[in-house]
Design goal:
Elements lengths: L1 H23 L8 H4 L8 E5 L4 E5 L3 E3 L4 E3 L6 H4 L4 E5 L2 E5 L4 E3 L6 E3 L13 E5 L2 E5 L4 E3 L6 E3 L17 E4 L5 E4 L4 E3 L6 E3 L11 E3 L6 E3 L4 E3 L6 E3 L7 H4 L4 H13 L13 E5 L2 E5 L4 E3 L6 E3 L13 E5 L2 E5 L4 E3 L6 E3 L12 E5 L2 E5 L4 E4 L3 E4 L13 E5 L2 E5 L4 E3 L6 E3 L12 E8 L2 E8 L3 E5 L5 E6 L9 E2 L5 E3 L8 E12 L1 E6 L2 H11 L5 E8 L1 E14 L5 E17 L12 H24 L3 E5 L2 E8 L2 H7 L5 H7 L4 E4 L2 E4 L4 E4 L4 E4 L4 E2 L9 E2 L28 E2 L8 E2 L4 E2 L9 E2 L27 E4 L4 E4 L4 E2 L9 E2 L4 E2 L12 E2 L3 E3 L4 E5 L12 E6 L5 E7 L2 E2 L9 E5 ...
Parallel strand pairs: 38-48
Antiparallel strand pairs: 1-2, 3-4, 5-6, 7-8, 9-10, 11-12, 13-14, 15-16, 17-18, 19-20, 21-22, 23-24, 25-26, 27-28, 29-30, 31-32, 33-34, 35-36, 37-38, 37-45, 39-40, 40-46, 41-42, 42-43, 43-47, 44-49, 46-47, 48-49, 50-51, 52-53, 54-55, 56-57, 58-59, 60-61, 62-63, 64-65, 66-67, 67-75, 68-74, 69-73, ...
Helix pairs in contact: 1-5, 10-15
């Protein structure tokens, strides 16, 4: 090589001298063929004009006479092109690349080890140890490394077989059917002859060698490139000193020739010699070499060196959120709640509401987060769950006599001789003030019209509309009559009468109608239907009219769908149908009772018969889609939404009026989005917008189509407000701290020793225990002068005049209260004296265990799990399937010395094969395969600190893919990138991956575009390399 370089330098030196001599001669007029392009030089040659002609010279990296040039394969000569790992020839040049676990040095030839432990601890749970070309995880004393080679399992007792610390396997221990053990090695290692140890090969981290690795029976042997020398560790390489280079390697002759070569380099450098002195790319030009740098580097002032560019300094590297600089490149990442798109720069909000189980009731997505909202009468606990509020636990619900809690509400009841006031809380003497006029009842008119059955349901007041999930809705009219605990039912179970004798006996009936295909949709009828309704009411078009008045009607429309698939596994279509569940309450008319001919039972039977006949007619009407509702001055029909494809085909594009038709009941179009009318307003069908409730009415719920009338005294005019959001804003009522005979002005203050926190009341609550208030008109028990001031978590006992700790299952977050609030739903507290609803926890172990996919979760997740809880799950996959588990994150407090732990074993026995065990918080995701066919999982907490816990999904896969799956989950690159970690935490992406792993034919359900848009390119490249290696014969 040295002789070739010297000869090349000598030729270039002669050429330089010849050029100088020619310049000294008298100048003759000459045509420059090189300039006008009339030369015959090859495209990969340099044309140099001469006095009478021109000369062709092949460019550096090519060989030939200039008329014909061909590429030189630098990788075949000069020690692999100078590349210490891999050399890739390209036209006129070459590129060096490095094995996994190495980065290319700035000189473009050498390869330097990557310290994987610097980022996220390499994904290791305990200790990460960097090695040449790779890394390894190690565990603290008392733990051993699990099969996934990243997490650690606690060795609490001396076990048998693989659970024994002396099982002898260097890497992976597997139990045999006969009870013994069989050892396996991680990818890139070979099992030793003793069947216990593992021998490193060049396939793992280049065998720990920086440059060249050669496998032998004793293990890898490392060697260095010709310009480098092996260090004493037997793995690393360092560049040789110029004086230490073997003369034979460079075929040097005399010191004088070396001096001449240096001078020639100074006179005319060429890329053929030492890459022209360039760190990276070199190009020969007529004036010498020109160095350039690859993308991600910038050329320094010396014109030779390349320096990494910190792309993050300029416009944040084009990243939407975070930018992290790396050697020669950079990496974008996103805020929590966002995911990186396939362009690996843009961030997109994760729609947490995509999964139905995210929230108990309503999920509202927002950029980077989400919010769970509970229906009226329910409250949020555990961050995402909704539980019924026990209003009766808070000052008896404000009821003067008895309070009965119901799901989503409560009801006040009066003692015999009293009746309920209009405020539905106070009780007045039955012979006292006349009760307010009862609300108009719901009327169902059915009959024949143009040869078919038509039905119209009319409701003038107490209308309530609520929207549910999956295009469901509920319409109620009137007030239901509850069945009290002490109430009785007749033999048929349809008659319910409470112990309160003031109630009229009622008949209850619940039926379900099939409404046909399509989704539920309550839509406003056209004018012709309204005209038909008006004519029907006047009996001009209806014959054999049936007119039934109900005290309460509830119509709930819900969906039922069945997914069809073709024999190839592709989606063949969805068959959807809507069903209407109707609940009717009919008062038994006491006026029809006669002592001689028909008693109460006789009248009830007549009413039931009339109701059954009306229901038959109603069923026919619904089947013919001839059932309409009339309330709030508008006409509605039980319509059905068209399928998305059909809607897209029928309307393109949608006009604003069309979009309004797609909005639900009680919604209006705002910026091309359907928005529910807020409280204090209702949807006016004629104006097609939300309007304020008129004076004298109120509305305390969203998405309604009417307002409820405000209560008021007979014969007196009281001031009213527009847009009242609840009954207390109607106006004209007594303010908190006041009362009157009817609850309306004029009012008087509550006397000393009493208080009233609500509006429109007819009495004030006594403080009790001979306590007095600081002044008249007190609004809270806190105004009562107690003996001691009770702190949160306690309530004041007016009998003993002491502060009592709130019992288990209750809490109190305020000072100086005389009650504790019951925990919502089926929750309870860990201990007594609780001060917040967040201490109310559901103790039920969560999860869904399926044959192919499923998940387990700690109780009360994502809220803190309860104390002293024990959960056990068993996953039993179908035959010839194995279990893959992903732990996205787990939050267990480490202060309790492993008092809370999650363990996954083959059986419940402590010495059975353990797959996973942890007792600490671990926010980095980890994936692993089960070491046993079945998996027994236990979660246990003590009475100490608590944490968020976990939600762990799993999938079962065909055991033929065992080698591929284990190769993927054991590779540290799956966890090294922050973006890869976010993929393992993205529920939507994991659902898609699990769907394909469980049923490979479902891969065809996703288009190529969908697949590309789901995952970043780096993740796709990682998986592709694994799959190709697995499929390679």
């Amino acid at each position: 090589m040295g002789a070739i370089c010297i000869a090349r330098d000598f030729c270039l030196f002669l050429l330089l001298l010849n050029t100088r001599q020619s310049a000294a001669l008298p100048h003759n007029r000459d045509t420059d063929q090189c300039a006008d392009g009339s030369d015959g030089c090859h495209i990969d040659a340099i044309c140099q004009n001469t006095q009478a002609s021109y000369k062709c010279t092949c460019k550096a990296g090519f060989k030939g006479d200039g008329k014909h040039c061909e590429d030189i394969d630098e990788c075949d000569i000069e020690h692999n092109g100078g590349c210490v790992h891999e050399c890739h020839n390209i036209p006129g040049n070459y590129r060096c690349t490095c094995h996994d676990g190495f980065n290319l040095a700035h000189d473009g030839h050498n390869c330097l080890d990557v310290d994987e432990c610097l980022f996220n601890n390499g994904g290791c749970q305990h200790v990460c140890v960097n090695t040449m070309g790779s890394y390894e995880c190690r565990c603290k004393e008392g733990f051993f490394l699990s099969d996934n080679q990243h997490t650690c399992i606690h060795r609490s007792v001396e076990g048998l077989s693989c659970m024994n610390k002396d099982h002898g396997c260097a890497h992976i221990c597997k139990e045999t059917p006969k009870g013994g053990v069989a050892c396996e090695c991680r990818p890139g290692f070979e099992l030793a002859k003793n069947q216990r140890g593992c021998i490193l090969t060049c396939n793992h981290g280049n065998g720990g060698c920086q440059h060249t690795c050669e496998d032998t029976e004793q293990g890898p042997i490392c060697r260095c490139h010709g310009r480098y020398a092996l260090l004493s560790d037997g793995r690393s390489c360092t560049e040789k000193d110029e004086a230490a280079i073997d003369p034979a390697e460079h075929n040097a002759t005399t010191l004088a020739e070396v001096d001449k070569r240096v001078k020639r380099r100074l006179l005319m450098e060429t890329c053929a010699v030492n890459n022209g002195g360039c760190d990276c790319d070199c190009k020969d030009t007529s004036t010498g070499v020109r160095c350039s740098c690859p993308v991600g580097f910038t050329l320094q002032p010396d014109g030779k060196s390349c320096k990494d560019i910190d792309e993050c300094e300029l416009h944040n590297g084009g990243c939407d959120h975070f930018c992290r600089n790396t050697i020669g490149s950079y990496e974008c990442s996103c805020h929590k709640g966002f995911k990186l798109l396939t362009d690996e720069r843009s961030c997109q909000d994760i729609d947490e509401c995509y999964f139905e189980r995210t929230c108990g009731h309503t999920c509202v997505n927002s950029p980077g987060s989400f919010q769970c909202i509970c229906n009226k009468g329910y409250t949020l606990y555990g961050l995402a769950h909704c539980g019924d509020i026990n209003e009766c636990s808070m000052n008896n619900g404000g009821c003067q006599h008895r309070c009965e809690n119901t799901m989503g509400g409560f009801e006040c009841h009066c003692s015999p001789g009293y009746k309920l006031h209009w405020n539905k809380k106070d009780c007045i003497e039955a012979e006292g003030l006349p009760a307010l006029q009862p609300a108009a009842k719901a009327t169902l008119n059915c009959g024949k019209q143009e040869g078919g059955d038509h039905c119209f349901l009319t409701c003038q007041s107490q209308v309530h509309i609520s929207s549910g999930a999956a295009d469901s809705y509920t319409v109620t009219c009137g007030m239901p009559l509850p069945c009290f605990t002490e109430g009785q039912k007749n033999e048929s179970g349809s008659y319910c009468q409470g112990s309160d004798t003031s109630h009229t006996p009622r008949i209850k009936s619940t039926v379900t109608f099939k409404s046909g295909m399509g989704k539920c949709n309550l839509k406003k009828s056209q004018e012709k239907l309204e005209e038909g309704f008006n004519n029907a009411l006047s009996d001009r078009m209806l014959s054999s009219t049936e007119n039934v008045q109900f005290s309460f009607v509830s119509l709930h429309c819900s969906m039922s769908s069945r997914r069809l698939r073709s024999r190839h596994g592709r989606k063949a279509g969805d068959e959807e149908g809507s069903f209407i569940t109707a609940e009717f309450e009919l008062d038994v008319s006491l006026e029809e009772v006669t002592a001689e001919s028909c008693d109460l039972g006789c009248v009830r039977r007549r009413s039931e018969k009339r109701l059954r006949k009306t229901i038959r007619t109603l069923r026919k009407s619904i089947n013919r889609e001839q059932f309409h509702l009339h309330f709030a001055g508008s006409e509605y029909e039980m319509g059905k939404k068209a399928a998305p494809a059909a809607a897209a085909a029928a309307v393109s594009p949608l006009r604003p009026v069309d979009l309004q038709d797609h909005c639900g009941t009680g919604q209006m179009l705002v910026n091309r989005k359907c928005v529910s009318c807020s409280v204090g307003t209702f949807y006016d069908g004629e104006q097609a917008r939300c309007v304020l409730c008129p004076a004298g009415t109120y509305q305390d719920e969203e998405g309604q189509v009417s307002c409820e009338p405000c209560p008021g005294p007979d014969g007196r005019v009281t001031p009213r407000t527009v847009g009242a959001r609840n009954v207390s804003q109607c106006g004209g009522q007594c303010s908190p701290g006041q009362y009157s005979r009817d609850g309306f002005v004029p009012c008087v203050p509550c006397p000393l020793g009493t208080y009233q926190p609500e509006v429109g009341r007819t009495f004030c609550f006594p403080c009790g225990g001979s306590l007095i208030t600081k002044h008249n008109g007190a609004t809270s028990f806190q105004n009562c002068e107690t003996k001691v001031q009770c702190s949160p978590g306690h309530y004041y006992n007016t009998s003993t005049h002491r502060c009592i700790r709130c019992p288990t299952g209750t809490y109190q977050g305020e000072f100086g209260q005389n009650y504790c609030v019951a925990c919502p739903g089926n929750t309870t507290t860990d201990f007594d004296g609780s001060t917040s609803i967040m201490q109310c926890k559901n103790r039920q172990c969560g999860g869904v265990l399926g044959n192919y996919t499923g998940y387990i979760e700690s109780p009360n997740y994502p809220g803190n799990y309860p104390a002293n809880i024990e959960c056990n799950w068993t996953i039993t996959p179908p035959p010839k399937r194995r279990i893959l588990i992903v732990v996205p994150e787990i939050f267990l407090p480490i202060e309790d010395e492993c008092g809370d732990y999650l363990v996954m074993r083959k059986t419940h026995l402590p010495n059975s094969v353990t797959t996973y065990e942890t007792c600490q918080t671990y926010e980095r995701p980890i994936a692993f395969t089960s070491r046993s066919k079945k998996l027994w999982i236990q979660f246990k907490s003590n009475e100490g600190n608590s944490g968020k816990g976990f939600q762990v999904p799993y999938v079962t896969y065909d055991e033929d893919y065992q080698e591929l799956i284990e190769d993927i989950v054991r590779d540290g690159r799956l966890y090294a990138s922050e973006n890869h970690q976010e993929i393992l935490k993205d529920k939507k992406l994991m659902k898609a991956l699990f769907d394909v792993l469980a049923h490979p034919q479902n891969f065809f359900n996703y288009t190529a575009q969908e697949s590309r848009e789901m995952f970043p390119k780096s993740f796709i490249r990682f998986l592709r390399s694994k799959v190709l290696r697995f499929l390679r014969p």
